[in-house]
Design goal:
- The chain has 19 helices and 16 strands.
- By secondary structure, it is an alpha/beta fold.
- The chain folds into 3 domains: 6-135, Rossmann fold, CATH 3.40.50; 142-315, 3-Layer(aba) Sandwich (Rossmann fold); 318-455, Helicase, Ruva Protein, domain 3, CATH 1.10.8.60.
- A 5-stranded parallel β-sheet has the order 2-1-3-4-5, sandwiched between helices. Strands 9-10-13-8-14 form a 5-stranded parallel β-sheet. A two-stranded antiparallel ribbon has the order 6-7.
- The relative contact order is 0.09.
């Protein structure tokens, strides 16, 4: 909110209204308070100038506050509302929340409670508005093979687009299963070399003694079994893109030869004496920390700085919590079509389990789990019982990782997020119902979810365990 937020108080008790107006003057970030004493006056006021926040008493002389909220909704004048009332019944509270109230405060109300609630609500609304504006300029949920609508993925789409516009070397990092090959293809397809070849070479899958020939090619007679000339990846990629997957697996001798090619774009096939030239754009990827590999002496520092020009870090699935169900539904539809089966989504319990699991194998693991379900089940709704389980010892290893026992202790906010997201899934996505069952206000959930999105908070580990 660029200007002072307008807070409208609807309260028929004049003395109480004066006290509340005085309380609002204590806000750290000043607001513009206004007061009306009836529902009719509120309707007139809001029709002329919509407030950023409405503080609403329910027992008004001309209309009940909940009815006022419904009228505002019908007229398209609804605004964020905090109910302040003496009516302390579960029925009234539920009705207020169903009508759209963000919070429900009981009289008598202390100055501290009012100020804190108004401040937190205004900050949450401001954060939500800024996040909406930010997301509006980012790409949509699908992008060149990626599936994801979370803020961190939309930022990634923008980074890929910027990198694609250049011929500079790109160094992709990320855990296994995060889509490094998809990222490389996206950069190539979005770039000026899209109509030329994209040649990928997996440095971890090719035997060391064959890697030089795979990369540079060889001439007939260069070694036993070389019965003809053979072009290598560098030749085949001429004019296009050369993608080194798991670049940190390349041995040091070949790193030296690759460095020379990167610097000069000249190379010699194995067994050859004449230098050849190739114009390629280089993209690298690794699931390791490349700088740690340099410091450990396993990766040449000079090659690292030649290749590490445009870094792109792919987020693990646990950092894009909002995308888990989006991906699961996409894979379910895709594999069901491939297998000729009919599935109609996931049950609330299944979705809750999917959200609670930390997915150490990332998108690839989720993909394998959904494919297994489609292959093994006949169709219908995917229930939690259909999700594959792993033995407890494997589950603990997945959650603990390779660190000490201390790594199993997760921050409180992380466990809180898991609990809240699981409750929402079990309530079929109904935030109000989930809030009521958790004993908190739905405004608290909205505020926390907005903060998690902007801060990139991680979900915690759940009880669902799969090995995919």
């Amino acid at each position: 909110m660029n200007t002072r937020p307008l807070v409208l108080l609807v309260e028929d008790d004049v003395l109480l209204a004066r006290a509340y107006m005085a309380f609002l003057s204590r806000l750290p970030c000043p607001c513009e308070p206004a007061h009306v004493a009836s529902a009719g006056e509120a309707l007139t006021f809001i029709a002329e100038r919509k407030p950023d926040l409405l503080l609403l008493d329910l027992l008004l002389p001309d209309m009940h506050g909940i009815e006022l909220m419904r009228v505002l909704n019908e007229r398209g004048l609804s605004c964020p509302t905090i109910v302040v009332t003496v009516e302390n019944t579960a029925e009234v509270a539920v009705n207020a929340m169903q009508a759209g109230a963000l919070d429900y405060l009981l009289k008598p109300l202390s100055p501290e409670r009012l100020v804190t609630t108004v401040r937190n609500t205004l900050e949450g609304l401001d954060l939500k508005a800024r996040l909406h504006d930010y997301e509006a300029v980012l790409p949509d949920a699908g992008y060149e093979g990626f599936i994801g609508a979370s803020p961190v993925m939309r930022v990634l789409y923008r980074l890929i687009g910027n990198a694609a516009a250049s011929d500079a070397s790109v160094f992709i990092t990320g855990e296994s299963g995060t889509g490094k090959d998809v990222c490389a293809e996206a950069i190539h397809n979005r770039g000026r070399r899209a109509d030329k070849p994209l040649i990928a070479i997996n440095c971890a899958a090719i035997p060391r003694e064959l890697m030089e020939s795979e990369l540079f090619g060889h001439l007939r007679g260069a070694f036993t079994g070389a019965d003809r000339n053979r072009d290598g990846a560098i030749t085949l990629a001429n004019g296009g893109t050369l993608f080194f997957d798991e670049i940190c697996e390349l041995n040091l001798d070949l790193q030296a030869k690759l460095l020379r090619f990167v610097e000069s774009r000249a190379y010699k096939p194995v067994g050859g004496s004449r230098e050849l030239a190739s114009d390629v754009r280089i993209i690298c990827a690794t699931n390791r920390d490349p700088l740690e590999e340099v410091q450990a002496g396993r990766f040449r520092e000079d090659l690292y700085y030649r290749l590490y020009v445009v870094p792109i870090a792919l987020p693990p699935l646990r950092d894009r919590h909002e995308d888990i169900l989006l991906l699961a539904r996409h894979f379910l539809d895709l594999f069901a079509q491939e297998e000729g089966k009919a599935f109609d989504g996931f049950s609330a319990h299944a979705e809750a389990e999917l959200l609670a699991y930390p997915w150490p194998g990332n998108v690839r693991q989720l993909q394998n789990v959904i494919r297994r379900i489609v292959v093994m089940q006949s169709g219908g709704t995917v229930d939690a019982l259909m999700l594959p389980a792993v033995p407890p010892e494997q589950a603990s290893q997945a959650s603990a990782g390779s660190g000490s026992h201390a790594t199993q202790i997760r921050p409180l906010w992380e466990q809180e997020r898991t609990l809240i997201e699981r409750a929402i899934a079990l309530c079929g996505g109904n935030v109000i119902e989930a809030a009521a069952r958790l004993g908190i206000s739905d405004s608290t959930i909205y505020r926390k979810r907005a903060r998690w999105r902007t801060e990139g908070a991680e979900p915690g580990n759940g009880t669902f365990r799969v090995n995919g």
